[in-house]
Amino acid sequence: MMDVKISILIPTYNGEETLRELFAVLHYQTVQPDEILVVDSSSTDNSVEICKKHGAEVMIIPQDDFDHGGTRTQLCQKAKGEVVLFLTQDAIPTSRDAIEKLIQPLINDSTIATSYGRQLPDKHAGFPAAHLRGFNYPSKSIIRRYQDREQLGIKTIFTSNSFAAYRKTALAEVDYFKNGLIFGEDTCTVGRLLQRDYGIAYVAEAMVYHSHNYDMGQEFKRSFDIGVLHSLEADLFDDFGKAEKRGIDYVSSGLGMLRKKRQYGEMFDFMSRVVMKYLGYKIGRKHKVLPKSLVMQLSMHRNWWKS
Question: What pLDDT, in 10s, does the model give residues 57-78?
């Protein structure tokens, strides 16, 4: 494993609240990277100074130039590593061997193009955030391949660049990450990798703390953006099935958990969020018929609509 060069790639923006802890944990990993590359979107806090202090090479770009796919592609092309490992500034590994476990499938099997780890709710997570993490990131590892879409549907291409590693040569085959996406660059790239007969490994033993407590409006906006992505990348997503079935499973799981814990008072809040997500997704799918001024108000990524 030590013969494989590893590059850790981190996009940052005003991340001083978590970056110190992230670098402290990275310093004690059992597998150390050959380099850490950071692209910072012109932070106004001490993010750049923190990254440089911990030995990272930092590129600074204007905030409006950040692109979920294009910026990560820029990092990949600059990276020296045979394995490129993405983290977000607020994803904190839970153990000293998290990176070692994450990259193991890439070391062991040349047909695996990417692996991603398990995300656990952080200590501030409420029920909606904690349940979403548990639903999307189960305790059992799995390797998924293109043919699994017949059984797993859209779940086949689920992944997250908050904590994911890629074989750089495989990424190059699909031109890395697509530029100009509202977000979801990781999911779209994994879909193309699966279509080329590569496997994707979910490594439940490699864990980070990473969650967000969204309010109702944010739940709507994020789901709206998912709908936009699925609409604009319809050819890819249609190949892997519809999102609605996954949504039904999510609702059943959440209600079942609340019943088990007898937290009946939480059900109204949970179902209200489900309605907001459903409406957001459906409206996002039909965003082309809406005026741009309204669309910008409905989206979590308002700057994207200006480009």
Answer: 999 999 999 999 999 999 999 9
Per-residue tokens: 256: 């079942």
* Pair of tokens at residue 182: 């509202």
Amino acid at 227: G
Domain that holds residue 300: 216-306
Residue 113, C-beta contacts closer than 8 angstroms, at least 6 positions apart: 106, 166, 167, 170, 171, 193, 198, 199, 200
- 93's enclosing H/E stretch is strand 92-93
Nearest to 44 by CA among 71, 9, 15: 15
Neighbours of 114 (CB within 10 A): 27
Shared domain for 151 and 265, answered yes or no, is: no
| pTM exceeds 0.85, yes or no | yes
| pLDDT tens readout for residues 80-112 | 999 999 999 999 999 999 999 999 999 999 999
Please indicate, yes or no, whether residues 180 and 81 belong to a single structural domain of this protein: yes
Write down the pLDDT at residue 25.
Answer: 97
Provide the pairing of β-strand 35-40 with 57-60: parallel
Burial letters 249-262, b for 16+ CB under 10 A, else e = ebeeebeebbeeee
Q: Is the pLDDT of residue 233 over 80?
A: yes
Gap between the terminal Cα atoms of the chain? 42
Claim to verify: residue 84 and residue 195 sit in the same structural domain: yes
Which three-class secondary structure string do you get for 122-146?
Answer: CCCCCHHHHHHHHHHCCCCCEEECH
- Give 143's strand partners: 201
- Predicted confidence at residue 2, as pLDDT, reads 57
Domain boundary among 209, 242, 263: 209
